[in-house]
Amino acid sequence: MIIKRLLFVIVTGIVISACNPAPATLNVMVHDYFAISTNVIAEFESSNNIKVNFILSGDAGSMLNKAVLTKNAPIADVLYGVDNTFLSRALSENIFEPYNSPLLEQIPDQFELDPDHQALPVDFGDVCINYDKRFFGDKGMPVPDSLEQLAKPDYKGLLVVENPATSSPGLAFLFATIAEYGPEGYLAYWQQLKDNGLVVVNDWNTAYYTNFSGSSGKGQQPMVVSYGTSPAAEVIFSDPRVEEAPTASLVGKNMCFRQIEFVGILKGSKNRSSAQKFVDFMLSKRFQEDIPLNMFVFPANETAQLPTEFTEFVQIPDQPAVIPADKISANREKWMEDWRALILN
């Protein structure tokens, strides 16, 4: 009897093990700003018997460099976080495998920049100039509604921007001016800003929390290059809670630059099936609705509902600045070098 029981336990154990195999590991390379709720990832893992291992890889540029350098022996199955300023390089380096996810039907065509479906849009956000509402209200000053107005003497010394060579929002704002004035005219515009008391710092933290008056209340500049979602963040993280954002965005034509982030399956992945499932999950309503309050960008899936703070306090520009990814890839370094030579010398 004892022997029979032991045999039953052993056989049963084998059956249970066969029915519940160890979860497959899926490696996902992401930039350092990636964030999503742990319970959302746990749902995907339990539903698919997959363990997701996120590999933090620096900013978007550093992450892409790592993916390119390891493309013959990829260290991940999926890469998320390449945006439209780096997309052309990612595609030219041939690091992705095409995948036409069925969830793309829920993504507006304007975000699908790769017709071969190697890079699939996940989210978008706008880099805009934020302004201190109290400053302009107290002074009785109108806020500028165009880049041209921004350079007028009325706004002398009132704008702080980030160095595009060291800051992503700084680079995005540089692209916005190029979209407006063209490669032939943007430097003349920046000369106007420089002559009008433009303040330049190296990073967003310094610009927003030291120079900008709208956040700390102590800065000297009431306008700062930041994100279109920054006013919502001011409300969400306020303590005590405020009912109205102290800041707002300038959203005139080409005053904001739209960034779109993509996900792709890395060529050489040995977990193609799991990778496809995860890409589908990232584009699904469940994942997409968790994006805004974690990464403060907008979901690409048009069926996803937005949090109240995004509908009340975030302005979406009707005409954001856009430059084709291939033109950015071909000219990025020259544009930045020419900017440095003019503004920092």
Care to describe what's here?
This protein is of the alpha/beta class. The chain has 2 domains: 2-124 and 260-304, D-Maltodextrin-Binding Protein, domain 2 (3-Layer(aba) Sandwich); 126-257 and 313-343, 3-Layer(aba) Sandwich (D-Maltodextrin-Binding Protein, domain 2), CATH 3.40.190.10. The chain has helices at 2-19, 38-48, 60-69, 87-92, 133-139, 147-150, 168-195, 204-211, 213-216, 230-236, 272-283, 285-288, 292-295, 308-313, 325-343; strands at residues 24-30, 50-56, 78-83, 96-97, 120-132, 159-162, 199-201, 223-227, 247-250, 257-266, 298-299. Helix 2 (38-48) links the parallel strand 1 and strand 2 (50-56). The longest helix has 28 residues, at 168-195.
Relative strand content = 15-25%
Q: What structural class do the secondary elements suggest? A: alpha/beta
CATH class of the largest domain reads: Alpha Beta
Radius of gyration based on Cα positions? 24 Å
Number of E-state strands: 11
Number of domains: 2
For CATH, the homologous superfamily of the largest domain is named as Periplasmic binding protein-like II
Give the second-level CATH assignment, the architecture of the largest domain: 3-Layer(aba) Sandwich
CATH topology of the largest domain: D-Maltodextrin-Binding Protein, domain 2
Q: Spell the H/E element sequence.
A: HEHEHEHEEHHEHEHHEHEEHHHEHH
Mean pLDDT: 93
Uncertain residue segments = 1-17
Helicity, in percent? 40-55%
Q: Name the overall outline.
A: globular
- By DSSP (H or I, 4+ residues per run), the number of helices equals 15
* Separation, N- and C-terminal Cα atoms: 90 Å
Query: The biggest beta sheet, please?
Result: 11 strands, mixed
